[in-house]
Amino acid sequence: MAKKNILNLEFELPAAVIGIASNEKVWKVCWKLNQTLSLNLASEQDDVTRVKGPALYTDHDSDPDFDFVFFENNLKSSQGTKLARQFRFWLVVKQKKENELDLPTLTRSISGIDVVSLVHDLSNEKDIKRLLP
């Protein structure tokens, strides 16, 4: 039986899941997100070349109102919706406080990145929270 990697995202406030399409490597998209959104997404792994499972890039300190988790989507063809499977990368934005996330502005900023071909809000997709690694 295969062991499952689980990212515990249990919280009361809603989280936004943004699908990002790009042909670049995960570290390059992460670097561009850091530049564009003034984030400090970083891997918790010491050696990201030998990571088993999805490499998670997290930032808990750049914004006092939100936590950010970025990773490469590895859904199987039988998991999730067709739309959710089309996006290679997901950015999860978790609210820390009751402040509302300006999702249209955030997605517009991400879509302006030169290595990003498409951005879509996946937050309302069926069972999206359950599909997070």
Keywords:
alpha+beta, 22% helix, 4 helices, 6-stranded antiparallel beta sheet, 133 residues, 6 strands, single chain
Note down, in words, how this protein is organized.
This protein is an alpha+beta fold. The protein is built from four helices and six strands. The chain has helices at 26-37, 82-85, 103-111, 128-131, and strands spanning 15-21, 42-43, 57-63, 66-72, 89-95, 118-121. Strands 2-3-4-5-1-6 form a six-stranded antiparallel beta sheet, with helices on one face. Strand 3 and strand 4 (66-72) form a beta hairpin. The chain is globular. The two termini are 17 Å apart. The mean pLDDT is 83.
| C-alpha geometry | globular
Q: Termini distance?
A: 17 Å
What kind of oligomer do you see?
single chain
Secondary-structure element string: EHEEEHEHEH
- Total DSSP helices: 4
Number of strands: 6
How are the strands of the biggest sheet laid out side by side? Answer: 2-3-4-5-1-6
Helix content: 10-25%
| Portion in strands | 25-35%
Low-confidence stretches are none
Structural class: alpha+beta
What is the radius of gyration? 14 Å
Q: Largest sheet, if any?
A: 6 strands, antiparallel
Arithmetic mean of pLDDT:
83
Write the SSE topology.
Elements: E1 15-21, H1 26-37, E2 42-43, E3 57-63, E4 66-72, H2 82-85, E5 89-95, H3 103-111, E6 118-121, H4 128-131
Give a short overview.
Helices cover 22% and strands 26% of the residues. With 133 residues, the chain is α+β, with helices and mostly antiparallel strands.
